[in-house]
Amino acid sequence: MKIQDIGFCIILAILLTLRKERWFVYAGLMSLTIAIPLFAKWVFFSAERLTWYAAAFFTIAVLSLLFTRRQTV
């Protein structure tokens, strides 16, 4: 487990406790923003991980929005 994995787990745990969907989207966008320069510098392993983290953040945001909207209707 690398330092970026530990950071992802910590951020994910914090965001799951706060339950703010918009922050998951911001975290996903930040992951993609950080990944772009890494792809340009040919650091593919870290950049690929960051894109997977972004996908995880976006998926959690969408699922959270779907379940909260379904409960309120």
- Helical content stands at over 70%
Q: Mind telling me the C-alpha Rg? A: 14 Å
Helix and strand content put the structural class at mainly alpha
Number of domains: 1
Keywords: Membrane, Transmembrane, Transmembrane helix
Transmembrane segments: 23-44, 50-68
Give a verbal description of the structure.
By secondary structure, the chain is an all-alpha fold. It has one domain. It is 89% helix and 0% strand. The protein has 3 helices and no strands. The protein has helices at 3-18, 21-40, 44-72. α2 runs antiparallel to α3.
Summarize the structure.
The chain is mostly helical and 73 residues long. The protein has helices at residues 3-18, 21-40, 44-72. It has three helices and no strands.
What attributes characterize this protein structure?
elongated; transmembrane; membrane; transmembrane helix; 73 residues
